[in-house]
Amino acid sequence: MSGHKPTAALELVGIADGQSGAGSIIAAKPCVAVIYAIGGGASGGSGSPREIGGGGGAALLKTVKMAKGQTISWAVGAGAAASGLATYGFDGGDTTVTLPNGFVLTAGGGKAGSAVSPTGNGGMARGGDVNRAGGAGGASGSAGTSGGLGGGSGGATNAGGGGGGGAGFSDVSSIGLSLAGGNGGAGQPVGGSDGGAGSTFGAGGGGTQNGAKQGGAGASGRVLVLLARTF
């Protein structure tokens, strides 16, 4: 005999993929819940010196045991709307997940640039077994940064700041579902168009130096819950 324990097989008993609004899932039998959450991306700004790219949303991963009849609920953070003309962008919404014991996980939304913040800060996550920050939106003339390991790429700059990439878990395999963060929107120059929108999920929008155009919108967050049991 080898002495090695056999690998436990997994049976998927439930799945929920929330891409907007609120939702919940109830365990029909005892199981383990694997939870992924991403916050919403911030929007880019419009017109100098406000053309800062929006920050990307944070991401988290959490595994919890569930008894039959217990519930996990969530609220997905919205992506920030496109900025007004010649204004700073808006912050992305936080994504929250409430566990059966009442503990709340938070994947923070990305932050917009402001008069006191020359970059759009990436969101921060708390409560997960693994917490990953979103990428930062670029200052004027700078690209956004990526959402880090498993996250989306930062947006390119064309003078306006690029949006930050959404954090994610593309390095984690999960029944063929993509867990990557989105790519940040591209920045635009004076005389250019609206800043590029962040792509799903969680990416920040690009800024534009053209004050007659809007900064790009941020992308929505996400919650993915997989319920599985071993046998």
Concise overview:
This protein has 231 residues and is mostly beta strands.
Helicity, in percent?
A: under 10%
Shape: elongated
Oligomer: single chain
Assess the beta-strand content as a share of residues: 15-25%
Structural class, please? mainly beta
What low-confidence regions span 5 or more consecutive residues with pLDDT below 50?
Answer: 1-7
H/E order of the elements? EEEEEEEEEE
Instruction: Please give the number of β-strands.
Output: 10
Radius of gyration equals 19 Å
State the end-to-end distance.
22 Å
Strand order in space, largest sheet: 1-10-3-4-9
Describe the protein.
The chain is mainly beta. The protein has one domain (10-231). Helices cover 0% and strands 25% of the residues. The protein is built from no helices and ten strands. The chain has strands at 10-18, 22-26, 31-38, 59-66, 71-75, 95-98, 104-107, 125-126, 130-132, 222-230. A five-stranded antiparallel beta sheet has the order 1-10-3-4-9, with no helix packed on it. The protein has a five-stranded antiparallel beta sheet with strand order 2-5-6-7-8, with no helix packed on it. Mean pLDDT is 93; it is low at 1-7.
